[in-house]
Amino acid sequence: MAKPVAIGLFGLGNIGSGLVSLLQERRKGIRDSTGLSISIKAICVKDTGKQRDAALSLEGIRITGDPQAIVQDPDIDVAVELMGGVEPASEMIIKALQHKKPVVTANKAALAAKGDEIFTAASSNGVGIFFEAAVCGSIPIIRVLQESLASDSIQAMFGIINGTTNYILTKMTFDSKEYDAALKEAQKLGFAEPDPAFDVLGNDAAQKLSILASLGFQSRFAEKDVSTEGISSIKKKDIQYADRLGYRIKLLASAKRCRGVENTVSLRVAPTLIPKQHLLSGVLNELNAIFLVGKYVGEQMYYGKGAGQYPTAAAVLSDVIFAAQHLTDAPFPFRNPFLGSKEIQDPLDGVSRFYLRCIVLDKPGVLAKIAGVLGTHGVSIASFTQEERSASGPVPIVLTTHEVSERQIHDAIKEIDALDVVKEKAVSLRIEDFS
Ligand code: HSE
Questions:
Q1: Can you give the residue range of the structural domain that contains 71?
Q2: Is residue 339 one of the residues assigned to a domain?
Q3: Would you place residue 334 in the very low, low, confident or very high pLDDT band (cuts 50, 70, 90)?
Q4: Are residues 62 and 194 in the same domain?
Q5: pTM of whole model > 0.90?
Q6: How do residues 56-111 score in pLDDT, each as one tens digit?
Q7: Nearest CA, atom 4, ligand 1
């Protein structure tokens, strides 16, 4: 006999509709493999009169505008929140938890902003909160951090965790497009939103990284703790120079324990040069990946679709299955990942190698001036190239440095930009060698 499991769903947008359809397709298979007979009992929507896609079968499902119809219904076993946005989604999640219902959510914004309240509500009510779909869609990284790697000590995580920016940078790299053209193409194909700011400025990746880092380092991190820089000022030229130096430019999210500084981590989202031969360089288009380093397991990489209706709905449904398998009267053994107290490194103290591009006049003594400023700030040059001048006018020079702090680079660039021989603001990008 299959065990019946009733879902109460908040939200019937793209992912919610995907969940309805996916469940119809997979119900029998899931029953055969897990012994659970899962169905959606009620869906709470903003507008009950809204015309829905005719192909979406809502037969037997109660559509309501009243959240209480879900949180107070004793026959609903699992609440699924797919409304998106911080409020009222967080309120619905917390209410359902308070009514002892396990909650599955895909809502990274709610977790990044209200994680404390949500996790406290889960642990104090002894029910689970499951959020695999909130970070990198279909990639099962949350369960990996919570369970599969619970025995290890995560040293560092690096991710390409935003599909929009990865698509744009891929097109700039391989199709030689400038940023604006690549963004337009991404929008046409539905990989970028009509207002792309949240993705291209790095906020989406910062929210996801704050959740990954909270789990990986068992401490409370929020989006504001992540030093965040987007890709909108990256030029095709920089991608080409990076290519000649053996690197790709990626929007890299990184969370690392700081070497030699006890209990401190660095959290950063920034366009970064990574070696072409590194596994993350092969993550192209809208795909996502997380590369992590465990003290005992060593290096691992998780790769897949980070968004999309079915990939995300599949992650949601797997969480429903997991929640249903742990439905019991005993309190759910939930570990609040936000109880630790790791310090966050001042981003200016972060040390790395840097790529530097300056546009300068091509005349005697210019190089000496730039090298002089760098030297004054303790920045050691590792490599240098200058393009042949094709006509009179400024030329780009491209440098890489040995390891220095971001503070040193910032201070040096401030002085370089003020030199009369420098014709555009210098561009500096971090180089991640994964060492
Ligand atoms: N907008 C996100 C991305 C997907 O481009 O990866 C949802 O998190």
A1: 3-137+310-325
A2: no
A3: low
A4: no
A5: yes
A6: 999 999 999 999 999 999 999 999 999 999 999 999 999 999 999 999 999 999 99
A7: 307
Judged against a pLDDT cut of 90, whether residue 237 lies above it is answered with yes
Same domain membership, residue 292 and residue 162? yes
Does the CB atom of residue 204 touch ligand 1 within 6 A? Answer: yes
Cα–Cα nearest to 80, from 108, 46, 103: 103
Q: Which of 101, 108, 208, 250 is catalytic?
A: 208
Task: Evaluate whether 200 touches 324 at the Cβ level (below 8 Å).
Answer: no
Among 82, 191, 199, the mutation site with the greatest number of ligand 1 atoms within 8 A of its Cβ is: 199
**How close is the Cα of 105 to the center of ligand 1, in Å?**
15
| Mean pLDDT rounded to a whole number for the chain | 94
198 HSE (CA, 13 A, CB side): 12
Is 295 marked active-site? no
Does residue 162 sit in the same domain as residue 117? no
Rounded to an integer, what distance in angstroms lies between the CA atom of residue 287 and that of residue 306?
A: 6
pLDDT (tens digit per residue) in 6-32: 999 999 999 999 999 999 999 999 999
Measured from the CB, is residue 432 less than 6 Å from ligand 1? Answer: no
105, 89 in Cβ contact below 8 A?
Answer: yes
163 lines ligand 1 (CB under 6 A): yes
**What whole-number distance in Å separates Cα of residue 372 and Cα of residue 375?**
5
* 162 touches ligand 1 (CB under 6 Å): yes
Q: How far apart are CA 241 and CA 223, in angstroms?
A: 31
